[in-house]
TrEMBL record:
One of its GO terms (molecular function) is hydrolase activity. The chain crosses the membrane at residues 141-159. Residues 50-156 form the Phosphatidic acid phosphatase type 2/haloperoxidase domain. It is a multi-pass membrane protein. Its main location: membrane. This is Phosphatase PAP2 family protein. GO terms for cellular component: plasma membrane. SUPFAM superfamilies: Acid phosphatase/Vanadium-dependent haloperoxidase. Residues 67-94 are annotated as: Disordered.
Length: 172
């Protein structure tokens, strides 16, 4: 499956996927989206941006300091690399790019579903691009999705608990 995806030669695969992958490099796209939501989205935008960025941070922490250290999976063969894609020396499992993209999108979703739907498009494209570029296997990306979703859920639970605690403290 990885070899088949990496071999896609359509115009869409050659142009759109590398563009999506470049946009999410170093989480640039998510910081721009969060800033835009904060400036133009009012209170809901600021809340969604904070949840998205916090989820992204938790996902990056989980993948880069825990997940990749516990596993030592090699990347797909170099000949599958499409040239321009990021190919770090770290473990292939799980995909940090995918975890960050999914975490941001899922973190935004409860507060601003329409914004999250818009974020889901580049997030999905970036995840697919990680396989197309030869940087990851599909299972690396699937694990990144799981980490991203888990991070967003943990952040949501943590935020709710903090709100409850603040309310209790204010009452006493």
């Amino acid at each position: 499956m990885t070899r088949r995806i990496a071999a896609w030669e359509s115009l869409w695969a050659r142009r759109a996927l590398p563009a999506a992958e470049a946009a999410v490099e170093w989480s640039r796209l998510w910081f721009v989206v969060a800033a835009s939501m904060s400036v133009w989205g009012g209170r809901r935008g600021r809340t969604a941006a904070a949840a998205g960025l916090t989820s992204l941070g938790v996902a990056q922490l989980a993948t880069n300091t825990v997940g990749k250290k516990l596993t030592s999976r090699s990347r797909p063969p170099k000949e599958w690399n499409r040239g321009g894609g990021d190919r770090p020396d770290s473990s292939s499992f799980p995909s940090g790019h995918t975890a960050a993209a999914v975490a941001f999108t899922a973190g935004v979703a409860p507060t601003w579903p329409k914004a999250a739907a818009a974020c889901a498009v580049p997030a999905g494209m970036a995840a697919l691009a990680r396989v197309h570029s030869g940087a990851h296997y599909p299972t690396d990306v699937a694990a990144g999705v799981a980490v991203g979703l888990s991070a967003a859920v943990l952040v949501r639970i943590g935020a709710r608990r903090m709100k409850r605690q603040v309310r209790r403290d204010e009452q006493h």
